[in-house]
Design goal:
RNA binding, globular, disordered N terminus, 2 domains, mainly alpha
Length: 168
């Protein structure tokens, strides 16, 4: 209830719109990805840069959504540039990249992206650990006739890093 008395306290300060990632920006990026709307994806990227939504203390949700949108729009050079600028990555980052390479008919690039995740993205915690989406994308890459011989290696590597394959 609104009070006109002199003892009322001031309302809480509004959150700083800078350096925040709103659910709206992620929703817009998902919509742009579904529609494969490259101009909207680029405009949202510019808005996130302007507001600080891609800065390192922020969660990776916006960065991963932007990466996914660029990849769905077929803007691989923009996606790779964003990937190079990302201060950190997670399993969702890698799964998006591996899946995109598979969709683009580049299974060897997908396997390289997975290897990069395990080696170059290593940090004090031991690097990015694959999840079920990363493993599924990797197995998709190994299902290509050109990379079929990598299938056993993919399963062994996934098992070695802690992802157990229980159903075949």
């Amino acid at each position: 209830m609104l009070s006109l008395s002199a003892t009322s306290s001031l309302p809480p300060p509004l959150p700083n719109p800078r350096a925040t990632t709103t659910p709206t920006s992620v929703s817009l990026l998902r919509g742009a990805a579904e529609r494969r709307d490259a101009p909207l994806t680029s405009a949202l990227h510019a808005a996130l840069l302007k507001t600080g939504g891609l800065q390192s203390p922020q969660p990776l949700t916006a960065s991963n959504s932007l990466l996914h949108a660029y990849l769905r729009c077929g803007l691989l050079p923009d996606a790779l540039r964003l990937l190079d600028e990302m201060p950190r990555r997670d399993a969702a980052t890698c799964a998006s990249l591996v899946s995109a390479h598979c969709r683009l008919g580049a299974p060897l690039d997908a396997i390289r992206a997975y290897l990069d995740m395990l080696t170059q993205d290593a940090d004090e915690d031991g690097g990015v650990r694959p999840n079920e989406f990363t493993a599924a994308a990797l197995l998709q890459a190994c299902g290509s006739p050109r990379t079929r011989h990598w299938g056993g290696w993919c399963m062994e590597t996934s098992w070695r890093v802690g992802f157990a394959v229980t159903h075949l």
